[in-house]
Amino acid sequence: MKNLMIALLLTGMTLTANQTLAAKPGATLDKQAATAQQQQKIKLNNASADQLEAIPGVGKAKAQAILSHIQSHGPITSQQQLTEVKGIGDKLAAKVAQYVSFE
């Protein structure tokens, strides 16, 4: 009986915490927040290896491949052109494009 009460208490606390955290004020993305988020993108052609490695899906090897490609072929100006980098296909290019700007 004691174990049942403890389990019910913990379950109640978990549900309450989830609802409280989910109902944060300002959780909606307004135009100003969207603009701020967009401005935080990494400029792909000016990024360092460390900045590129911080992008999900890009490790040391792909970061170096991107830098080498930029050095050899010039700036990358689009998501499609990013697929020309060795080891980066359409799916990864789409994922990376969320975090970079091609300026």
For the terminal residues, how far apart are their CA atoms? Answer: 65 Å
The radius of gyration over CA amounts to: 21 Å
What fold name goes in the CATH topology slot of the domain at 42-101?
Answer: DNA polymerase, domain 1
The tally of strands reads 2
- Widest β-sheet, arrangement of strands: 1-2
Q: CATH class of the domain at 42-101, anyone?
A: Mainly Alpha
Overall 3D form = rod-shaped
Q: Could you tell me the mean pLDDT?
A: 81
Element-level helix/strand string: HHEHHHHE
* Fraction of residues in helix: 55-70%
CATH superfamily of the domain at 42-101: AF1531-like domain
Q: Count helical runs.
A: 6
Q: Uncertain segments of ≥5 residues (pLDDT<50)?
A: none
What about the largest sheet?
2 strands, parallel
Q: Please state the second-level CATH architecture of the domain at 42-101.
A: Orthogonal Bundle
Beta-strand content? under 5%
Structural class: mainly alpha
Protein name: Competence protein ComEA
GO molecular function, one term: DNA binding
Keywords: Signal
Domain Helix-hairpin-helix DNA-binding motif class: 50-69, 80-99
